[in-house]
Structures are given as structure tokens and as C-alpha cells.
Amino acid sequence: MAEAKISAVANDVAAAMDDKNMDRRTADLEAQIAELKAELSNLASTVGNIGQATGAVVKGEAERVTDDLRERVRSEPLGALAAVAGISFVLGLMARR
User: Fold this and answer.
1) Nearest alpha carbon to residue 84 among 69, 97, 64
2) Helix extents (H) in the chain
3) By the 8 A CB rule, do 72 and 80 touch?
4) Alpha-carbon distance 75 to 93, whole Å?
5) How far apart (Å, rounded) are the C-alpha atoms in residues 53 and 78?
6) In whole numbers, what is the pLDDT of the chain averaged over residues?
């Protein structure tokens, strides 16, 4: 009888320890999840910033190329006209087929 009581108490103590360990593990996992969420948020922000910076660079480069092309057309109008005529001719031939 005493052995049964001791065994029951031992089982109760073991269950209580498992519950405490489980609570601690759950808290640890929740903390890790919170850290991962914060990291993902930071990564998303960084990717967004990189995208905006890249867009600004591309826009600036496109504006520069457009300005260069305009200046070239102004300095060599006959050459630009000949280039447009040649490109149009080639596109016309391709469209026929």
C-alpha cells in the first residue's frame, strides 16, 4: 500500500515536472516565433528598400539614355531620320511574312 502511494506521488511529481518543462518549451518556442516574425519583417522592409533604390536607378538611367538620344537626334537629324527609315523598312518586311 505504501509502495502504491509512493509510486502515485512519484507519477504526480513526474507529471508536474513534464508540465513545467512543457510550459518552458512552449514559452521558448513562442519567443523564437516572435524573433522569426521580427526578422521576416526586417527582411521584407530591406527587400522593399532595395526594390525602390533599384527602381530609382533604372528610372535615372532611362532618363539619361532618353536625353542622350534626344541630343543625338538634334545634332544629327538626317542620320536619325535614316535610322528610323531603315528600322521601319525592316519591320515592314518582317510584318509581311
Assistant:
1) 69
2) 2-75, 77-96
3) yes
4) 29
5) 38
6) 87
